[in-house]
Amino acid sequence: MAKRKINAALLLAAGEDAHLQTSFPEAQITKEIDGEIFMEVSVTDIVNNPMQPRININDDELLELAQSIKEHGLIHPISLIKKTDDTYMLKAGQRRWLAHKLLKLKKVKAIVETNSLILGDERKKQLFEIAIIENTQRDNLDPLEFALSIQNALTQKLYKSMEEVADKINKSKSYVSKVLKVLSLEEVILKDLLENKSTNDIETLYALQKIKDKEKQVRLYFDFINKDIDRAGIRKEVQGKVSHAKQDIVIKRTAKKLTLNVNLNKLSDTKKNELEVELTKLVDKYLKA
């Protein structure tokens, strides 16, 4: 998605009305500029962005934001879309809106889009892209929420391909692919990511999902969370798993013949000699039985 243009005139108008108090009984409005106005909106008249990727909000962070708004006021207005039923849909500023609700404030300053021609799926795409970009710019969107949001957009067929999604949210195709792979992690890991937001390290989570041994994957995940292993260590574990997948012993058997191929690369000359002796004894045992 192209970067949103900053409407300087609207921001100036908002600045002129920065003295507006959220306790005023009626919404105060500036003049409309390019289909948008700066005004105060009742907190209860706002509905959340249906394409919002964030599932959980950190209580401590929300409380900290609420305290800041209480002490200094709202510095950046939230962004809304005027709906036909006298309600407003959130475009950007979910945490600021929730902080106002937490403070039991009746109104919130907002820049409101009043004359939108964007409808249906195009509107959903716009809401998705704005929400993703807003959250990723702040680096506070966890990988699971990110993955679920992208999957939801693809399931709704808002985009033709993963490549199109990547382009619209200003991410590489490989990055989006790695994010989606998070969904293939074990359920206990997904539960921890959802409830505790233990890490936002996409690269490590991507590496972990390559480990097909479920117990090992979970163990290494929590080792990583507890800082008993780092990303490099996880990658070594993955590489080790791949190398182990190459069989050290290959046995081929027909009706009259058995062929044994053994990978001797890891053995010293002494061990090779010992193995040869033991194998010879074993074969003799069965042939002479």
UniProtKB/TrEMBL annotation:
Claim: DNA-binding is one of the keywords in the record: no
Entries under SMART domains matching the protein: ParB
Superkingdom, taxonomy of origin: Bacteria
Family annotation (Pfam families): HTH_ParB (PF17762), ParB_N (PF02195)
Domain ParB-like N-terminal stretches: 39-136
GO cellular component term, pick one: chromosome
Gene3D superfamilies, alphabetized: 1.10.10.2830, 3.90.1530.30
Keywords noted in UniProt: Chromosome partition
Gene Ontology biological-process annotations: chromosome segregation
InterPro entries, alphabetized: Chromosome_partition/occlusion (IPR050336), HTH_ParB/Spo0J (IPR041468), ParB/RepB/Spo0J (IPR004437), ParB/Sulfiredoxin_sf (IPR036086), ParB_N (IPR003115)
GO molecular function: DNA binding
Family: Belongs to the ParB family.
NCBIfam families, sorted: parB_part (TIGR00180)
Record-given protein name: ParB-like N-terminal domain-containing protein
Organism from which the protein derives: SAR324 cluster bacterium
